[in-house]
Amino acid sequence: MALNPHTTEREFSGVPGALAITLGLPVLLFGLALVCNEHYSLEGVRLDWAAVSKQIPANWHEWHRLAFDRQCWMAYLAWFFLLVALAYILPGKHRQGVPLRDGLRLSYNINGMAMLGSLLALLAARLWQLAGAADPSRRFYLAELDFLYQHQLQLVLVTIIFLFALAVFVYVLLFVPLATPNHSPNEGERRQRVLLVNGNTGNPIYDWFIGRELNPRLGFWDVKMFCELRPGMLLWLLINLSCVHEQFHHQRALGGVLDSVVLITLLQAFYIFDGVLNEEGCLTMMDTTTDGFGFMLSFGDLAWVPWAYTLQARYVALPQNRVNLGAAAIAAIVALHFVGYYIFHLANTEKLLFRQGKLDHLKLDQIKTPTGSRLLCDGWWAKSQHINYFGDWLIGWLWCLPTGFQTPLTYFYVVYFALLLIHRQVRDSAKCREKYGALWQEYERRVPYKIVPWVY
Length: 456
Ligand code: NDP
Description:
Strand order of the largest sheet: 1-2
Order of helices and strands: HHHHEEHHHHEEHHHHHHHEEHHH
Low-confidence stretches: none
Distance between the termini: 37 Å
Number of helices: 18
Number of strands: 6
Mean pLDDT: 92
Radius of gyration: 23 Å
Largest sheet: 2 strands, antiparallel
Helix content: 55-70%
Shape: globular
Bound molecules: NADPH dihydro-nicotinamide-adenine-dinucleotide phosphate
Strand content: under 5%
């Protein structure tokens, strides 16, 4: 069988779907920013179009000013490339990915935790430095967080333009012949790039959208793995912190920081920490093993995660939307959050340890396949085929509840995430059916529910 077979089946309705998503998602993300900012915030479901349209640039000159703000570009480029440099410099664990179709395993430097630690240490040092400021209003005032908060619309556009360019860069990189021997010793024999099974149609628009090469790399820099947990996830944390910072410094007359924004920030920070701490788990995730880094993933990692996932914190940070939860509501939300987290974390860990052979002593119910992979049908993985998705979705609800019930806008996340997870499950099932044939049917017979036990 050819290493890179020609793709005949196209997802997302092929080129028309790819174009619609490529245009639609940035418009949606910009639209979300327009209805949740200091100039206008959606109340209930009534959209005040006049207030929204006032923020939309009226001509090319205004668009240019908004999208190409010099300071915003410098800030974003500095952020992105500083993280690239840290990915190279900071020490980490060296791990190998799953075998590629050509049998090779790429090596990865797992140092996300060192990167997150460096970022937090830097923030703590800045706070400490500012704790003794002579002017009381400047105490603990971080100009960088204020900048982030004040330039949301510009930065959304900067991020979108940047990721477009990155997706083009990665696509073009594909046509640069690989040096032989390749970047690291374990790739020494590799002469051909491994392309995506579903990204080799030959149509540049579709292939650019879905991603063509499975693991685009530039020297040490694995673009896909880097984008998965670094610039977008860490920016998500910073944007949330900028919301707390905003209430602390600019809403003192209204009572300062409220518990809702702190709770959302803490719950999401916990999720980000968990993701970074378990970075190694990314090596076996669909994004790494199956998906390509084209526009779709680039958009998801770099723009959608930081700007759509922060909608709840950005909403309650606004003076007109302040929510005070009180101790009982906080306790209930935290308790439920840990139920979701418990399911999500244990299920993912169980699969990882099982696949690494570390649970063999438990003699778990499983299906052995000719590929060498084993399918677990026990423990959490007996409850549904993606019980980890269910836990993840529950967690999402607990990020939305602290916003109260002022508008459905802040519940956008759970609706979008349900659609994403169902779509992901359908794609994953199709992949596994193709890979495991009758054994996958046997697995589906033993574990009939797809995500939510007894429901779906
Ligand atoms: P899974 O962790 O469910 O992994 C699916 C893969 O695992 C399958 O393709 C198959 O791969 C293998 N597999 C399937 N069933 C079994 C089994 N019973 N036993 C052993 N291996 C099995 O999905 P994802 O990679 O999509 O997601 C990982 C985590 O990331 C989830 O918790 C999800 O919620 C989260 N996530 C979060 C997102 C967000 O935006 N917050 C977005 C996407 C995911 P193989 O080919 O190796 O057999």
